[in-house]
């Protein structure tokens, strides 16, 4: 059952990705990328990564779509038709994809208990977290406490991104220098 | 969006539950999936939905740009402030043990506080980005969509 669900989701993901590449209407592209995010979120749920799925659904399907629509409203509705078709991008994409697939061949299987990620600090977190932090959601315990410094870094990145957008296209600067 | 009656009615119904759900995700992150990042986004989505379906002007009066900018910075300050407080209490930066007399209490409240900081900053950033995009005059007419 789980295998069937995973296979279906992966095929749907690929189909969505191909249609994103084919469709010319940018509005449809935004909606399809929202679908892509929701499918990815479902895939994360199948993998028992509920927190990641939650984030993907909220950020990938929710906010990103809104921001993309906002961008379309400021630019154009349809993708420009290319003047001539070139095979170079296709070759680059195929090569990169092949390299990525080649790279995954060395990776441990999904859920393999002997994978490095499960034998290193991960096992210690699982073992010590009830006594150290006593928070039922282990993800929160790791992100908030064990990896608190990293999360602070993430928040600063989000903050910097927000400041950057406001400064670049915000247009909210109302204070002007007084003329002498 | 003036003429979309169904959208307006549904939005009116949806905004309050979305806000409530955002709060739930924020404060329940210790027990279930969720936390500051998701909560900030969900909370912002409620306002953005309102801004899209009704109008941006009312939204900007309700939550002025200035407030958004203050919130966006406040979250980071709150987060790092928790770290500094634990330093003053004799611990290391962002070690929540010394925040309270009881170590576990310190961890619980420490995580709650930093998650709130994350949520506030994410909310502020989402609103600020939305304002930046939506505040500019669109080049596509409402009917051309």
Describe this protein's structure:
- The complex is a heterodimer of chains A (180) and B (145).
- Chain A has helices spanning 2-22, 26-46, 50-74, 88-105, 116-119, 121-132, 138-146, 148-170.
- In chain A, 21% of the residues are buried.
- The mean pLDDT of chain A is 87.
- In chain A, helix 1 (2-22) packs antiparallel against helix 2 and helix 2 runs antiparallel to helix 3.
- Chain A is mainly alpha-helical.
- In chain A, 74% of the residues lie in helices and 0% in strands.
- The longest helix of chain A has 25 residues, at 50-74.
- Chain B has helices at 5-27, 36-53, 56-62, 65-88, 103-134.
- The longest helix of chain B is centred in the last third of the chain and has 32 residues, at 103-134.
- Chains A and B meet through helix 3, helix 7 and helix 8 of A and helix 2, helix 4 and helix 5 of B.
Topology:
The complex is a heterodimer of chains A (180) and B (145).
Chain A: H1 2-22, H2 26-46, H3 50-74, H4 88-105, H5 116-119, H6 121-132, H7 138-146, H8 148-170
Chain B: H1 5-27, H2 36-53, H3 56-62, H4 65-88, H5 103-134
Helix pairs in contact in B: 1-2, 2-3, 2-5, 4-5
